[in-house]
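Chapter summary example: a protein plus zinc ion.
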Amino acid sequence: MRNNKFILILIMSLLGGCSRPADQSANQDSEAVSVDQNILFVDYTEIFLDEFWSYSPDWATYVGYYKFDDKLIVPDAAARAAETDFINRSLSQLEKFDTSALSARNATDYALIKNQLESTLWYMYEFRIHEWDPSNYNVANIFGLIMNTQYKPLDERLLTVTRLLQNVPAYYLAAKQSIDQPTVELTRLAIEQNKGALGVFEKTIQGKIEESTLDAKQREELNNQLTTASSAIRGYITWLEQLEAGFADNPARDFRIGKDLYEKKFGFDIVSDLSAEQLYRKAIAEKDRLHARMFELTEQLWPKYLRDKPILKTPLLAIKQMIDHLSVRHIDREGFVDEIRRQIPIIQKFMDDNKLLDSDPTRPLVVRETPEYQRGFAGASVNAPGPYNATANTYYNVTPLDHYTPEQAESYLREYNHWILQILNIHEAIPGHYTQLMHANKSPSKIKSIFGNGAMIEGWAVYSELMMMEAGYGDHEPELWLMYSKWNLRAVINTIIDYEIQVLGLEREDAVEMLLAEGFQEQTEADEKWRRATLSQVQLTSYFSGYAEILAFREELKVKMGDKFDLRNFHNKFLSYGNAPVPVIRKLMLKELELPI
Ligand code: ZN
Ligand code: ZN
């Protein structure tokens, strides 16, 4: 969600020289100054957010802040100008704080706000995503969300929808005026998604009108708006289809963004001490290391499983044969959800017994079948409470495999076999996403929750897998280490192919071949990964980037602290900073521990 909209805010009186009396005694201690700065900063973030949401109303609704739920911003040049003005004012407000006087918690919030604002400007003026990503324009999600979230009675939500619909024609007009030489891939995606969007207007909302007690006049008004909105969306689809047909004469933009934009986007999205190129080189070395380790494990397992056959001389082929052989051990499709439910307490107990980090039994994880409206694809994900309802349950959504053909189910279950399913649960739940977010909620910060760093969040989940393996989860069983390595390799190869595709011009055939031969992936997974790499940039590097930085920081601390290093304390302390970028946490933590940076 990068096309955030902002509003002008006037907070001059709150900040700057006028906030501190000029006649303050000259010998005031530095603590008094820092308290002052912290109070001012916390006040500032509240005002900043309130205004921020009025220009990002759809995002606000998404995080559970419903004040602007009937507001749809028309994404035109005037909106971008207003946003720019707001960002520039906010950045100059931020400059007035003495960051050295801010507490660790506030300093991380400060870094996140600043990065968010600078990043938004960059997206608008250098990356210019509004010009070449037609999938940026799609109103369906916000309407779907309002229909599926019972934050107020249905009738009221339908009246909100009626008001929200008014700007839909102007919205799509602005979209057409903003777009200039899009990519083929994103044009096709936009066509596909906007066709899907019609279902929300022509089915979902219609169905809700039936259930409601709106009177005849209200229904008529809403139906008229729905008809107008649908035809605006159809108009946009037709316009995109014409654009697509014209690509033969007016070449589309290459989906590859190239080295310069890639490095800058990496800087804003990931926030790393490494450059994208350095991370890419690190990933290549890690891939080779993992392959060597996986071959050792394969040799070790060979007599147990495949002793009748000679071991293949080519390591990658031997590893693949062993993985294929082991993958037939999996739960059956009917038992999928129950098996996940069964494993969670076992994994929790292992984490507690091994004192890896603190847990909180008062905030348990609830495993449930994914609600219908959230089921896009099979799989598992953690649904954490948002910043405006932080005490709500955390759900582990697991989608049953009901809608799969037997072949699809078998392929899926081999992928999430006996061993990988445990790694998945560690990643999604304990000590992965659920545990991390539970810790983050202990020092609740709306800023960290809203502008949280994706590389830190994903990196933690990937790191937590290694943490459990190192502690002896699964008794150091070589089968589990082999499968874990395959899973870990996915994060590593994501980084490699994203860089090679976007920066070095890697072609489809070679990318898919790498995923199959060196990543031991299934064909469908490899095809899907190629598609994702043509529609997004940099995001695929977040898993390995965060993981590598957390691990490097842990090793650095072990050296710097010697005997004083304690794994549990390290984990608890690291997570106490919330969803901030790893390099930001590192600096603050070293400062707090009074260690050299
Ligand atoms: Zn099977
Ligand atoms: Zn994850």
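Key point: Residues 356 and 589 are 19 Å apart (CA to CA).
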